[in-house]
Every structure is written in structure tokens, then in C-alpha cells.
Amino acid sequence: MKLILLFIILFSFLVKETDAVIPDPNPPVISAPGFVTYYLVCDTVNFEVTVSDIESGPVTLNVTGLHPQITVTPPLPVSGNPVTILLSFVPNPLIEHTTLYYTATDSSGNVSTDYTVIDFPLGILSTPRWHSPATCGATYNLLADDSITIPLFVYDESYDTITLTATGVPDGAVFTPPLPFRGRQLYDGTMKWKPDITQAGFHNIVFTATDYCGQVKTCSINFDVVLPVELSSFVSSVSRNNVILNWTTSSEINNSGFEIERKKTGGLWEIKGAIPGNGNSAEPVNYRFTDKGLVKGNYEYRLKQIDFNGNFEYHDLTEEVIIGQPSDFSLSQNYPNPYNPVTKIDFNIPSDGNVVMKVYDISGKEISTLVNEYREADYYTEFFNASDLASGIYYYKLTFTSGAVRNEKTLKMAVLK
Question: How far apart are CA 356 and CA 33, in angstroms?
């Protein structure tokens, strides 16, 4: 009886030992990328993590170290066998050197761990970067009619397309390659410009570089275009039938000089004289020119300022100059005097009438008649050629008759051979 009881106890123990759970020697297996790198801060980055276990029981997966920009689908924690999660993020702002840690636990309590490192391999330079011009906001000083070449170099480290545009571009500026530009990673070119005299002043150009992700970097450059000669004033005055022109330059660069041009209103421009410039000057310089012996009428004047390199610009006198009708009878001393063989004689008459001008020798003998005709009130100039006369003293006489009024005047002149 004792033997049977012992057998029953032994059998029960063997049955319990057979039903006991044997510990699982195989922990869950995590399949995850060791490193995730990205190059464009606007692209969506996706990667998967999978966990499996040879057991038929569920596996629970959890993740720590999650960056706020990273989303996990399905939400954590997640259980199953196998288990797959999708991790997604748009790295803007940048996600740099972030490590995700995975923990997988199976039904037997076995635990496995793994990790993924997320990094941007090019550092923080994700927006376009200007290399040339070296200083954004720089101002270039240049003269009108001088040319300038500016190197332009902008690049983006995302290795994708870049777009370059510009605003405030002055007429005549040439870009190589042309703008707007769209190309791979960088713009390496030049801007060439030769401003003319109408473009004197301050110019601001703003360049906008936009990368594939829409990130923008601007760079502006300025041009201060100055005229070779800055006129601070240009005025005229009239003395009888002479016009006096006065002008002042506030500064001069490379100034060879001025040509003075005149025309009757509606007529053609004529050069009436020239005055040398002052070369280079940072101080005001005053100039004066007298245009003598004009007849009555309306006149316009302008200055042609000429550089040493041949470039020029015009400065117009703003007001019209009016030479009015003479107010009196006048005969001027001839010029030059003495002379050989030609001299000039100026006179004016205040009204319309008969004019007679004759030349006499020292004995009173008539030598020549210069004028004998009816003329309108005006300023006049006559020339006398004494090439057939011997050296000596001669006289010229002007007689003017207008109605009952008669004027006469005689002056002496000398021929010197």
C-alpha cells in the first residue's frame, strides 16, 4: 500500500514537471537603421523599424529620445508579432545628431535594445550662402561713363537647385549668366555696368537667392555714380550786346575743359569759345566767359564739359538770353588797333535808318566806303582790310540818319606794317 502511494506521488510530480514553462533563450529581434542622414531640409524623411520574435506571443516596442518633429505610426507603445512602425519627419528646423533608442519586450520578459542616429551631414549651412560680393551692403563709387565688373557667387549646400533674382537693376547692367537664373547648387557669374551721365546718383540692387526648399538669402550692393564735373551754378548776364556767362563747379574729376556753345532760338549750335578745366578739384572753381558783339535776338547757351579721356556731357543754361534793341547811337574803337591788315569796327543804331561808314586818310581823302544802306535798329560789326594801304593814321566816320535825326561820329585808327 505504501508502495502504491509512493508511485502515485512520484507520477504527480513528473506530470507537473512536464507542464512547466521552459524559459525562451531567444530575445526579440529589432531591425532598425543605424544611421539616417538627409540633405534637403524641406523633404520628408521616412524610415521603418521592425521587431519580431520566434515566439508566437506578442512583442511590445517602445521608443525614447524622440524629437518633437518626429511622428510614429502607429502610436507608441505598440504590440504585435511582428511589429513595424514608420517614423517620419521634415527637418525644418534642422534635426542634428539625434539618437532614438528602441526597447522590445517579448511575452517571456526578454528585452532587446537598438538605436538610430539621425544627422544632417553638412552642418547648419542649409540656406544659400553668398561668397561674392564679399560684403553685402557694400557701396561702389564710380564715375558716369566708367565701367565696373562685380563677381557674383552664391551657393547652397543642399546640392539641389538654386534660383537667383535681382531688383533695382539699372538700365544697361549685364549679368552673365543672365538673370533670373535657376540652376544646380550655385551661381558663379558677373555683373557688368557702364552708367551714362543720365544715371548719376545712388542705385541699390537687391539679389535674392532661393534654394530648393524655398529658403531665402538676400544680398544688396550699392552704386554711387557721380558726374566727372558737378556744376553748382550756371548763370548769364547781358551788357549791351555782350553776354557774360558765369558757372561754378563744386568738384571736378578728370576735367579737361569746357566748350561754350550758342544758338539762336530755333537755330543750330555753334562753338563760340573754350576754357580749360581744373583737372581734379574737391573745391569750388569759378569760370567766366564773355560772348561779345551779338545782334539783337534770343539766344540759348550750353557748356560741353570734356574729360581727358574724351567723354563729355552737356550742361544747358536754363533761361533764354535776350539781346534787345540798342537804346542809343554808338561807334566803338576799332580792334585791334594798330592793326595789319584787318580790323573790326562795332556800331549800333537805336532805330531804323540810313547808315554810311567811310574811311579817310590823314589829308581827308576818302579811301573806302564800308556801309551805305538802310538798316534796322541793331548792333553791327564791319571789317576793314587795309592790305592796300601804307602804314599811317586813318579815320573812319559813321553817319546815321533816321527821319529828322542825324548822328555822326569819327574815330582814328592806325595801320602798322
Answer: 118
Which grid cell sits at 193? 555696368
Burial class (CB in 10 A: 0-12, 13-18, 19+), 187: buried
Alpha carbons 367 and 97: distance in angstroms, whole number: 113
Cβ 229 vs Cβ 254: under 8 Å: no
pTM summary value: 0.52
Which CATH topology does 129-220 take?
Immunoglobulin-like (2.60.40)
**What pLDDT is attached to residue 113?**
96
Averages of pLDDT over each 10 residues, the chain, 417 residues: 48 46 73 86 88 89 93 95 94 79 93 91 66 87 88 82 94 96 91 89 94 87 88 94 96 92 94 94 93 94 92 92 94 96 96 97 95 96 95 97 95 96
Per-residue model confidence (pLDDT) at position 197: 77
CB proximity list for 329: less than 8 A, separation 6 or greater: 348, 349, 350, 400, 407, 409
Q: Which CATH number fits the domain 229-322, given the four candidates 3.40.50.970, 3.40.50.620, 1.10.1740.10, 2.60.40.10?
A: 2.60.40.10
Chain mean position to CA 262: 35
Domain ranges of the chain: 29-119, 129-220, 229-322, 330-415
* Geometric angle at alpha carbon 63, from 126 and 72, rounded to 5°: 65
| Residues contacting residue 207 through CB under 8 Å, at least 6 positions apart | 152, 154, 164, 165, 166, 218, 219, 220, 221
Does domain 330-415 fall into CATH 2.40.37.10? no
